[in-house]
Amino acid sequence: MSARPPSKLLMAAELPRAVFGAVELAAKAPMLARAPRGDGRPVIILPGLVNPDWANFAMRRYLRRLGYDARGWGLGPNLGARSVGKEGEKLDALIRSVHAETGQKVTLIGISLGGMMARLMAHRWPEAVREVITISSPFAGDPKATNVWRVFELLTGERVDDAAVVANRALMEREPAVPTTAIWSASDGLVQGSICRTDECRSIEVRSGHVWVQMRAEVLLRVAEVLGGKP
Predict the structure, then answer these.
(1) Reported confidence tier of residue 1, pLDDT bands at 50, 70, 90
(2) What is the pLDDT of residues 173-219, one digit of tens each?
(3) What's the CATH code, domain 8-227?
(4) In 163-194, which positions are buried (b, 16+ CB within 10 angstroms) versus exposed (e)?
(5) Where are the domains of the chain?
(6) What per-residue string of b and e applies to 120-159 under the rule 16 or more CB within 10 Å gives b?
């Protein structure tokens, strides 16, 4: 049976859960401070649909405090091909530039649509990408098992059944030649959690909605633990 979109009840709970998560963040600071320290490696955080870099400020600041070279993508709001180029050439250039600048492979952390892009980039540039961490990214199934596929089409100008989009989905569902981790939630109100992971990638379930998932304390801690090599 194919996956179905999350219920209307879960979708309606997205905003209050997002606000609660943001408020909770300060209270969880002592827990977050116990995460493994970073090693200075470059990390690029790719935002979700329509989100700009500032939406990820909490994660970027947290990872910098741990000791990582955490960066935004600098391409404005994520509007799919309208932001990264028809063939993803702007994102290609960014990854190759950071790799050349630092002399190190780049870790890609992608939220939702950003995570889908991150997996594609890992397939294209395994020599420049160290690992991929996706957060609430529906890369592994029917795009209509979400409550946002029509919004995706409207904002990006791409259709989920376009040949290029279908081909990209088939590629991103396959495991690239770098380590991958999928952080997902069964109670996500916008995307079905079952299409945010595969049996081949490392899978970490959290309790969270979709909106502002990148600001949830549990998500930040899990990201830090993956980067720090915690089993």
Answers:
(1) very low
(2) 999 999 999 999 999 999 999 999 999 999 999 999 999 999 999 99
(3) 3.40.50.1820
(4) eebeebbeebeebbebbbbbbbbebbbbbbbe
(5) 8-227
(6) bbbbbbeebbbbbbbbbbbbbbbbbbbbbbeebbebbebe
